[in-house]
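can u pls check wat happens w/ NDP
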Amino acid sequence: MEKVAILGSTGSIGKNTLAVIEEHPDQFNVVALAAGKNVKEMIRQVKAFKPKLVSMATRKAADAVKQEVGETVEVLWGDEGLNAVAVCSDSTYLVSSLVGSKGLAPTLAAIRAGKKIGLANKETLVTAGHIVTAEARKHQVPLLPIDSEHSALFQCFNGERSAEAERLIITASGGAFRDWSREELIHATVEQALKHPNWSMGNKITIDSATMMNKGFEVIEAHWLFDFPYGKIDVILHPQSVIHSMVEFSDGAVMAQLGTPDMKIPIQYALAYPRRMPLRTKRLDLVSLSRLDFRALDFRRYPCLRMAYEAGKAGGTMPAVLNAANEVAVEMFLNRDCNFLDIEEIVERTLDAHQNVGNPSLEEIEEADRWARQFAKNCLVPVA
Ligand SMILES: NC(=O)C1=CN([C@@H]2O[C@H](COP(=O)(O)OP(=O)(O)OC[C@H]3O[C@@H](n4cnc5c(N)ncnc54)[C@H](OP(=O)(O)O)[C@@H]3O)[C@@H](O)[C@H]2O)C=CC1
Ligand SMILES: CC(=O)[C@@H](O)[C@H](O)COP(=O)(O)O
Ligand SMILES: [Mn+2]
């Protein structure tokens, strides 16, 4: 029996994780849950899954949950609560599915406490890949990818020798604006950007998919997960999101993992690894699909992807700055405080202004994150 704690249980990945657990009550047991402010959903989850420990982002949200769930559940809040859920003594497995770099500290704490990690929060590896992978090795903790492309790559590597792989090929749907020109993007609205063609996901990653920053993050994530140089990680456009990614080996053979766009598949694979278990999900019907398309990607059309490669190659605090500036810019766009194309402008200006720190400590990464957020918030304001 895997005893599971989930960070971000009320989100898209969190709810899909609970749906997988619900299908296999004999295999998985929920022991702790953490979320932000969605009190109603957390109360429903506590009643359905009976965790012993729960945490919410604020005292107010925690009090509201406490009122409904009674004395048998410990309800905490804030960073301390997140940390307590991550290292909860009853758990064997942490699903890390908070959104943003907020996920880094509790995920690191869980690694240090020896928990197996199902990693959805890509910002953990983007911001501090060198520390997270070193700590996972030190504590002999597996980092099991949940992100669909990395789950695909992980499955393609199964039974293979990674030294015999030559190239990782990550597929990109192109997001909501795949067929829009840059001129048209000037007028892109929040509602349009949130309409992903294939996947149903949280707002932040859906915007990242539309800017292609999501793919940039995934390149950095793949670099750390599979210890691959950036020069051997390619991205190609694949509008159908049926091939989730591929590995090309030294003999020219290419392994691919295919499936319908349903996150329950990679989530269950990460939870059950190395087993496979039955899952009620729509089956892939290649005949009715009839074709799969692929196109090359143009860095001029997608500057966020270019910036992510550059920040990844530069290393140091650059990827953390890339992420923090992007978090600020996406939030501004979602709040209608800037235009869609301002997202890339804010990120670029912040990266250009940053003094990179090589081989940073966790504190230096946190400091770079704080600096970048402050800079990014104000960098579009014209100087008087
Ligand atoms: N969705 C997907 O299919 C995929 C997602 N990912 C990655 O997984 C991660 C999660 O994505 P997704 O599920 O879409 O995101 P959502 O926005 O749907 O969910 C985010 C979760 O984090 C919680 N949260 C936000 N802020 C805080 C906080 N300060 N303290 C505690 N909890 C907080 C939210 O709580 P609440 O809602 O209660 O406020 C919610 O439970 C991201 O890193 C994303 O890039 C990767 C691949 C696919
Ligand atoms: C489901 C998942 O893993 C997302 O990261 C998804 O890949 C987004 O799709 P695109 O970024 O390719 O549009
Ligand atoms: Mn992905």
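The longest strand covers residues 165-172.
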